[in-house]
Structures are given as C-alpha cells and as structure tokens.
Automatic annotation (TrEMBL):
This is AraC family transcriptional regulator. Keywords: DNA-binding, Transcription, Transcription regulation. The keyword GTP-binding does not apply. Residues 234-330 form the HTH araC/xylS-type domain. The keyword Transcription regulation applies. It holds the Pfam family Arabinose_bd. InterPro entries: AraC-type_N (IPR032687), Homeodomain-like_sf (IPR009057), HTH_AraC (IPR018060).
Length: 330
C-alpha cells in the first residue's frame, strides 16, 4: 500500500504564491495533482500527500532549490490552531514536544524527534518514505521550516550549532549558508540541526496558559478528524491497490466499504480526490515499479494494471508522467 496521508492546502498555496511574481500560471504547478481552483478557495479542503507531492515535483522542475525558499516562508502561523498552541506554550521545549505529538497537523513526511547529545539537542527528521527524487526538496523544506518555527516561537533567531544532511551536496550547496548559519555536513547519517539544550527551558514571549489550553483541545479534535479520515482513506487505497488487474468500479468499491456509491463519492470529494484519481495514482505507482523489470513486456504491464489495450496504457502513462513507458525504463 502506498504511504499516503491527508494534509491541508498550506504548502500548495505557498508554492503558488512563491511562483506568482515569476508569472508561472497556477495550472502549470497544479498539473496532474487533481487540485482545482475551487479547492483553493475552500479553507477546509483536505488533500492527500500524493497530490501535494505532485505540485512539489512541478515546482522542483522549474527551480531545483525551491525547497529552501519555501521552508523560509513557512512560518508558525501557517499551521493554524497548532501554530497558536505552540506560540502560547510556556517554554520552547514544551512547544517542540507538543509539535511532535501532532505530526498530522504539521503535515510532515518525516518522523520528527529531539535527540540529546551532551549539551546539544538534534532536531531530527527521519523515516522518509515518499518519492526518492524529491528527497532533497522535502528535507530542505522540512528543516528550514522547522528552523523558522523555532525562530518564530522565540521571537529571535535560534543559534544553531550544526546541521547535517544524509544526501550528497547539490549543485546549489552555496545557498545553504543563507538558511543554516552553522557548520554543515553532507553525506551524514541523518537529517538534522542542533542547538544548545539550555534553550529548551527558555520561556516563550507569547505564553498564555488560558489560550494554550483552549488551543490544545481544538488541536486534539482536529487531530482525531485527520487521523480518522486517514484510516478510512488508507482502507480505500488498500482495497483498490489489491484489485488493479480488475478494478471494482465505484459501485463495487462502495460495497466493499459497506456504504453507498453516493456516500463514497461524497467522502472522496471531501478529501479532495475521486475514484478515478485514486485509481490512476495507484496504477501509475505500480506501473513505475513494473517498468523497472526490463524482462516484463509492456503489454503484460498493461494487463496487470487492468487495461484492455496496450495503447490505452501508453496514452495513460504519457498523461501521468509526460513520457512513454518505453522512455521511462532505465
């Protein structure tokens, strides 16, 4: 089963705003994501991480180092109620530990942790399981935005004692100095930045116990909604992924989910997707895996994905990836 979660439109909206001064149409950035202009106008729209990653991939194709810039713009206020809960925490350490309790509300693709190392604390992002081609982008976006959150919480710049990345230095490595004012190591064992552990006890300038308690309760309810929807969506995706050779159709899938087709369609719409979009996404992911086997003929791949004709699969793959299946093969 694909590793997918629900998230908000915050990152997508940020990407669109970042490219707006360059005159890049929103349609170019949203291409292939299934996100439309109507979705952008609804504050309660929820999308899958796969939809978000499609927009991210479009952004990286236009500008390779865009993850650094996007991370710099992702302030604590971008996280809604969780952001205000963090700001009103008693201490810096309390705020960071609260953030780790609600990864779904952070919309992170990583397992975040605070790892003490003597007098240092490493804020670490691990267990990335999404598109490997977007690893550097997502690490940059994650670590830079976490650093920005730290600065916002403290009301001043958090002095960093070091940063490390598990991948090799990109061509634009000189730009990292603009975002990490500290010793920087590539090809390290993890993705993290470090600060003096004494900062964990630092009182926050906007601490407010009454507001904090109210925000915590709202975060708890929102997290329950997010995780509940994620469990439901994961079940839908699991059922559909197991039947790609002979997809059940909306009616058949609804029966397997013990609901009506109308209910299934409405729930999927509320999550920002449709039956066909989920089917296409799962077929595309499976197609990329099967194309890695040079011994498997393309017509066999088409059959395994439920296409009655090889030509139909070729047309669909070009629509998904922009290239023919034969060109995608290594």
């Amino acid at each position: 089963m694909l590793h997918s979660h629900l998230t908000t439109l915050n990152a997508v909206s940020l990407i669109l705003d970042t490219f707006k001064p360059d005159g890049v149409p929103s349609e170019t950035l949203l291409a292939g994501s299934g996100i439309g202009s109507a979705d952008l106008s609804r504050a309660d729209t929820r999308i899958t991480t796969q939809q978000e990653l499609r927009v991210c991939a479009n952004a990286v194709a236009l500008r390779q180092d865009i993850g650094l810039e996007l991370g710099r713009r992702m302030h604590v206020s971008s996280y809604g109620m969780l952001g205000y809960a963090l700001l009103t925490s008693a201490t810096f350490g309390d705020a960071l530990r609260l953030a780790l309790r609600y990864p779904a509300l952070l919309g992170t693709l990583f397992e975040l942790s605070l790892e003490e190392d003597g007098e240092r604390v490493w804020f670490t992002a691990s267990d990335y399981r999404e598109d490997l081609a977007l690893t550097a982008f997502n690490v940059e976006f994650c670590l830079v935005s976490l650093n920005v959150i730290c600065n916002d919480l403290l009301g001043r710049r958090l002095p960093l004692l070091g940063a490390r990345l598990a991948y090799s230095a990109p061509q634009y490595r000189a730009r990292y100095a603009e975002y990490f004012d500290c010793a920087l190591q590539f090809d390290a064992g993890s993705h993290a930045f470090a600060f003096d552990r004494r900062w964990l006890d630092q009182p926050l300038p906007l601490a407010d116990a009454v507001t904090h308690c109210a925000m915590i309760e709202r975060c708890r309810k929102q997290n329950a909604e997010f995780t509940g929807r994620q469990v439901w969506l994961d079940r839908v995706r699991q059922l559909l992924a197991a039947q790609l050779t002979a997809a059940p159709g909306l009616e058949g899938l609804a029966e397997q989910m013990n609901c009506s087709a109308r209910t299934l369609r409405r729930h999927l719409h509320d999550l920002g997707c449709s039956y066909q979009e989920l089917l296409d996404e799962l077929r595309f992911e499976r197609a990329k895996q099967l194309l890695g086997d040079d011994e498997l003929p393309i017509y066999r791949i088409a059959e395994q994905l439920g296409f009655s004709e090889t030509a139909s699969f070729r047309h669909a793959f070009v629509r998904w990836s922009g290239v023919a299946p034969s060109q995608f093969r290594p």
